[in-house]
Structures are given as structure tokens and as C-alpha cells.
Specification:
Elements: E1 2-4, H1 8-18, H2 24-42, E2 48-54, E3 59-65, E4 69-75, H3 82-86, E5 93-94, E6 96-101, E7 108-114, E8 123-127, E9 130-131, H4 135-146, E10 151-155, E11 158-159, H5 161-170, E12 175-178, E13 180-181, E14 184-185, E15 191-192, H6 198-203
Parallel strand pairs: 1-12, 4-5, 4-6, 4-8, 8-10, 9-11, 10-12, 11-13
Antiparallel strand pairs: 2-3, 6-7, 14-15
Helix pairs in contact: 1-2
The structure holds 1-O-pyrophosphono-5-O-phosphono-alpha-D-ribofuranose and uracil.
The site of 1-O-pyrophosphono-5-O-phosphono-alpha-D-ribofuranose has 24 residues, from strand 4, strand 6, strand 9, helix 4 and helix 6.
Length: about 210
């Protein structure tokens, strides 16, 4: 259930994001574009239903999406992925989970949660550019399951193997989609080589 989306456009844009001298504007733009490109792959197995419609010419038996999609960005950095995916799924509803990682303990702390009511019957996509220790994504997925979500995908840009393992062990039913699987975590819990602190680079807070 781990998919690393290997595409030259995604890799090129991720390279721009990784560069230490890339500024806030270009960082945000590349994140938005990568999220849009990833949307093709993460929606590949969305369920469809048969419908019969009328074209201007004749009747046509075809298919349409059978389930609604809910996007759940993990604040703050996950917000930077919403618009790119929503440009392809404009009907998607959006829930929010506010989590920050304590810089000393690396444990996630929840400070906000608000979800649409259609989560139990929807395909829910958790968005966060960074999967480091996996603590934040694990907490968000647990919270979503408590609110009734049953079909969950985790969509991240860059992950450390440590974080992937945490999600695979805690939530083996959740598909993980990445643009890159990096080497490891450093002593401060940063992904190596990674791209630094995604939230700070999106919002210019450091
Ligand atoms: C970052 C990132 C993830 C989390 C990943 O958020 O956006 O949510 O860390 O680390 P983990 O896998 O070890 O939990 P941060 O806590 O820095 O908050 P921010 O998005 O508000 O900057
Ligand atoms: N959060 C980030 O934003 N970057 C990392 O490398 C790890 C956690």
C-alpha cells in the first residue's frame, strides 16, 4: 500500500523545493503544482458507477464517480496541497486537523479539528507534505477513524522510512502516496535530505 509516484515533472518540481535558496513564493507554487500532478495517481482507483446519459447525439452508457472525496490537510503545511488537488476534484469537501509537533519530544499536539459530515461514506485523503516520525499522520488518521472514516489515503511529498513504517504498522488499511522516499531522519527528527521545515518555508515564518 505504498506508492512512490515517479514522474519527471514531479521530481523536477520537488528538486526546486528542496533547494535551500528557493523562496516562499516558488516553494508554495511548486507544492501546489506537485499536489495537482499527484492527484491523477491518488484518484486512479476511485470507485465509479454505471450511468446512462443522453449526449446531444444519442444515449450513452458510461461511468461517473461513485463516492465523494474529502480532503483533510494537516495544518499548517498540508494546506499548501489543497488547491492543487481541488483543481481536479472541485466537488471535494475539506476538513481540517490542526497538529503541531513538539520540537523537543517530537510528539504531535492537536489544536483544531473540523470535518464535513459525509466522512463515513467518502474517500478521505489526508494531506501533509512531510511524513517524518509519522506521529502527526498517525494521530490524524486515528482521529479520522474515530469520526467514522473507513477509506483513507495518506498523501505526502517526502517521507522518511521511519514514518512509513509507523503508518504501515498502525494503519495497514491506509494507502500511502509519496513523491519521494528519502534516506532517514536526523537527530532533530528532520527528514534527510528532505526540504527543511515545510510549514516555515510555505509561510515564511523562519
Ligand atoms: C510538520 C509537518 C508534519 C509533521 C511531520 O508539521 O508538516 O505535520 O511536522 O512530522 P512527524 O511525522 O514527525 O509528526 P509541524 O509540526 O512542524 O507544524 P506546521 O505544519 O504548523 O509547521
Ligand atoms: N517536519 C518538516 O516540516 N520537515 C521535516 O523534515 C520533518 C518534519
Amino acid at each position: 500500500m505504498l506508492t512512490v509516484i515517479d514522474h519527471p515533472l514531479i521530481t523536477h518540481k520537488l528538486t526546486q523545493m528542496r533547494k535551500e535558496d528557493t523562496g516562499t513564493k516558488d516553494f508554495r507554487q511548486n507544492l501546489d503544482e506537485i499536489a495537482g500532478l499527484m492527484a491523477y495517481e491518488i484518484t486512479r482507483d476511485l470507485p465509479v458507477e454505471e450511468v446512462t446519459i443522453m449526449t446531444p447525439v444519442s444515449e450513452c452508457k458510461t461511468v461517473q464517480l461513485a463516492k465523494e472525496v474529502v480532503l483533510v490537510p494537516i495544518l499548517r503545511a498540508g494546506l499548501g496541497m489543497v488547491d492543487g488537488i481541488r483543481s481536479l476534484i472541485p466537488t471535494a469537501k475539506v476538513g481540517h486537523v490542526g497538529l503541531y509537533r513538539d520540537e523537543e519530544t517530537l510528539m504531535p499536539h492537536e489544536y483544531f479539528a473540523k470535518f464535513p459530515s459525509n466522512m463515513p461514506e467518502s474517500v478521505v485523503m489526508v494531506l501533509d507534505p512531510m511524513l517524518a516520525t509519522g506521529g502527526s499522520a498517525e494521530a490524524a488518521i486515528t482521529l479520522l477513524k474515530q469520526r467514522g472514516a473507513t477509506q483513507i489515503k495518506l498523501v505526502c511529498l517526502v517521507a522518511a522510512p521511519e514514518g512509513v513504517k509507523v503508518i504501515q504498522e498502525a494503519h495497514p488499511d491506509v494507502g500511502i502516496y509519496l513523491a519521494a522516499l528519502d534516506e532517514k531522519l536526523d537527530e532533530q527528527g528532520y527528514i534527510v535530505p528532505g526540504l527543511g521545515d515545510a510549514g516555515d518555508r510555505i509561510y515564511g515564518t523562519k
